[in-house]
Amino acid sequence: MALWQIPFFVLPATCLQSQTTFEKEDDMFDDSPFWQTESIQSDYFDEINRILPQSKSWSDALIMYGDNTSNVFEIFVENEVVQSVTFRIDFTSKYEIILRELIEFCLLKGLIILDQNLDVVPLNFESLKERINSMPQIQKYNYLLKATNKS
User: Fold this and answer.
1) Measured distance CA(16)–CA(79) in Å, rounded
2) How many C-beta atoms surround the C-beta of residue 26 within 10 A?
3) Which domains does the chain have, with CATH numbers?
4) pLDDT digits (tens), the chain, 151 positions
5) Which of 34, 50, 67, 89 is most exposed, with the fewest beta carbons within 10 Å of its own?
6) How is 45-57 classified by DSSP, letter by letter?
7) What is the pLDDT of residue 37?
8) 53 CB contacts (<8 Å, ≥6 apart)?
9) For residue 88, what are the β-bridge partners?
């Protein structure tokens, strides 16, 4: 993941029936248990192709839409069953349309979004944009950019 990318997790909204807080273990978040109870096929996400074009993946178990170094939506599958769903937003790009369409997709498909702190983010553009703008990566990126421009 690049410094200019903000990561998000996508989960079935049904997981909120049994769990309202999420935790990392060894600084990692395993979202597969939430998907395994749903048995959702990978074609459930085919419509993402209208938002971000499907791209070549480094693994047969990973379906990737978009650009791995920019805005990207990734689905890990095992036997065509979804195991994990994430996306990253490139805050240096014009990401607004992509983000709006991903929000709409999640609303229509009964999905929720967690930020990198594993907080559930309201499914509206302003909330997500505010969350993106508050991430420490942006401050670090701007600091490095400023330091580079002084040289």
Assistant:
1) 26
2) 5
3) 5-150 (3.30.1400)
4) 667 899 999 999 998 877 767 888 888 898 999 998 888 999 999 999 999 999 999 899 999 999 999 999 999 999 999 999 999 999 989 999 999 999 999 999 999 999 999 999 999 999 999 989 888 888 887 788 778 777 5
5) 50
6) GGGGGGTS-EE--
7) 87
8) 65, 66
9) 7, 72
User: Helices in the chain by DSSP H: which ranges?
Assistant: 32-36, 96-109, 125-133, 136-150
Residue whose C-alpha is closest to residue 6's, from 121, 90, 110, 94: 90
> Across the beta sheet with 62-66, what order do the strands follow?
54-55, 62-66, 72-78, 81-90, 5-12, 111-114, 120-121
Where does residue 149 fall: left (phi above 0), alpha (psi -120 to 50 degrees), or beta otherwise?
alpha
The token pair at 85 is 């769903």
Q: Among residues 123, 35, 135, which one has the least CA distance to residue 86?
A: 35
Do residues 113 and 10 touch, judged by C-beta distance below 8 A? yes
- What are 90's two structure tokens? 């490139």
How far is the CA of 142 from the CAs of 7, 37, 69, in angstroms?
18, 41, 18
